[in-house]
Each structure stands twice: as C-alpha cells, then as structure tokens.
Amino acid sequence: MRVRRYVLVLMLAAAGAGLHGQTAVNSAAGARAAEAPPQPVVNGLDLKLPLKNGSVRWAVIGDNGTGDQPELAIADLMQRYWQVVKFDFVTMDGDNIYGGHSPSDFQRKFETPYKQLLGEKVKFYASLGNHDDPSIERNYQLYNMGGNRYYTFNKGDVEFFVLDSNYMDPQQLSWLEDKLKGSTAKWKIAYFHHPLFTAAKFHGPDVDLRTQLMPLFTKYGVNAVWYGHEHVYERIKPQSGIYFFLEGSSGELRFHNLRKPNDLDEVGFDTNRAFMLVEVAGDNLYFQTISATGETVDSGVLPRQGTQPAK
Q1: Which helix (H) or strand (E) holds 214?
Q2: DSSP readout, 35-77?
Q3: Cα Rg for the chain, rounded, in angstroms?
Q4: CA 91, CA 290: separation in Å to the nearest integer?
Q5: How many CB atoms lie within 10 A of CB 203?
Q6: Mean local confidence (pLDDT), 226-246
Q7: Would you say residue 4 has pLDDT above 80?
Q8: In 3-state terms, what secondary structure has residue 209?
Q9: CATH topology classification for 27-303
Q10: 193-226 pLDDT, tens per residue?
Q11: Beta bridge partners of 56
Q12: Which of 144, 226, 271, 299, by CA, is between 20 and 30 Å from 30?
C-alpha cells in the first residue's frame, strides 16, 4: 500500500531541447526511430551499437523476476549479447522478485537465470517495484542497493538516480533535488518502477508521480528516464525535452496492452518479451531493444540535449 504522496509546489521549468535534426528510419515495430550507424551481424547476433572505445554500456530489464522459462530465455539471450557487447552492468526497473522472497526464491528467480552474467562479474543495480520487498531486497548484496531504497551511482560520464516510486515522500524528493543539484555528470539518467507517461492500458501513467518528479527533472537537466510496471516496451516521444523508455517485459508480458493508435509512443511493442542494450559515447546515447526471438524491435541514437546528433 502506498503512502499518501505529497505534491511539490514547484513551477515546471522551461521545456528542454528535444530531438535535434535526427535522421529517422522505419523500425522493426513499424514506427519511426532515430538512425544508428549500421553494424554487421556478429556471432549470429543483430547488433546496432557502435561499441566505441571508452563508452559506457549496460543492459536494461524490468518486471523480470518470475523464475519462469520466458525470464530464462531473455537471460540466455542477454548472455549471448554480452559476449559481443561486454556490457558492465544491468539496470533493473523493478518487480525484481515476484511472490515469495526466501533464499530459494532469489536463487530461482534471479541467481539461476543470470548465473552466467553474474559469473562474468556483471553488476545488477535494482530499483524497487510494487511486488518487491524493500526490507529484504535493499540488503540483498547482488542488487547493489547498499541498504537503501533509493541511491545514485556513476559510470563514466553517466550518473544514475535510482528512485523508489512506491513511496515518493518529501524526504526522498529533498534527497533527489540535492543529488541532482550537486551532480556534475555529463549525462543524468533516472530510473524507477512506475511510469510517468505510457500508452499502456492496464495501469496507465502515474500522474501524481509525474507532478512530483517532472519539475525536478526539467530544472536540473535529467537527460533520460527508464521505468517499468506495464509489461510492454515503449519508447515515448520526448516530454519537456527528456527521453523516456518503458521496459517492463523482461519476464512478464501483457499481450496487446498498448492503445493503438496513440500519439505518445515513437515505438511500442507488446507481443513478446524484451530487454534493452544501451551505450553512451560522448554526446550520444545508442539503444537497441531486442525481443525474445532475437528480433531488434527498436534501435537508434539520441543526442544529449543541446548537442548535434551523431554523424
């Protein structure tokens, strides 16, 4: 049960820069996506990331913790891509463990599916969803939460702000403002569980949470936001200049849950499970969304706000 949210009385900052002159092509999901440099098929895998020297590379999963075969299939595909991409870490959009939270549950729903990645020293950084137990998960060593419901970490030019969207109380909002205000990172990326914008029908957007977070995100220059909760994939049109992704289909899936047509999504995918690969290199963020069958359903490159797109 969520506690009552306290709405910040802040004026929405001026809309940030949107997409700056990007080239667009048709994506596999039938919508338009920013064009990334073409890459060859490597080890039988369709790869869209440039894999530039010194870049920050990670994978994104959400709503994954079932322990069932679909989660295992996504985890196996992630391992195959890791062999080429060598991503250093994985961000988790919440609902990391469904059902019980006993040691055997963690083993079946997390340690076994991602055993090979964990063996390669890939770190997982969890956020808390509504199915998660914060008293247990924030102290679970392999989630790297450091005993906290919300936290930050840095990787190269990127600072990640990991929030607990279940309990967005004044204390967390004050903490977030202080951390954003003090950040000197080139890229500021936030992720959490409940969506601020979505075209999904089952839950829909959390408008109260949006009212609380968007003034801070726009004021302090957050570049991109990830969340889950809806068991689909979406790349949402930039809102106030910020890039938004929803990845909530790495274990669970809600077939045909997206409103179609809608004027919110650049790309929506609700017919199979998926995960994402992301690479930040300089002023550009490259992304690739891969379904359980290995199909690339979305990919592209997004320039850091106020810069020119990649050539």
Answers
A1: helix 207-219
A2: PPPP--EETTEE------TT-EEEEEE-S-TT-SHHHHHHHHH
A3: 18
A4: 16
A5: 16
A6: 97
A7: no
A8: helix
A9: Purple Acid Phosphatase; chain A, domain 2 (3.60.21)
A10: 999 999 999 887 999 999 999 999 999 999 999 9
A11: 280
A12: 226
Measured CA to CA in angstroms, residue 16 lies from 13, 54, 177, 240 at distances of: 8, 28, 18, 5
Which pLDDT tens digit goes with each residue over 104-126? 999 999 999 999 999 999 999 99
Residue recorded with tokens 């924030």: 138
- pLDDT per residue over 45-79, tens digit each? 999 999 999 999 999 999 999 999 999 999 999 99
Provide the token pair at 83: 């062999």
| Residue-range domain boundaries for the chain | 27-303
Judge whether 224 and 199 are in contact, CB under 8 Å: no
Length of the chain: 311
CB 155 within 8 A of CB 58: yes
Please determine, for residue 33, whether its predicted confidence score (pLDDT) is greater than 50.
no
**Token pair for 137:** 């998960």
User: Would the pLDDT of 16 be above 60?
Assistant: no
Residue with tokens 């055997």: 104
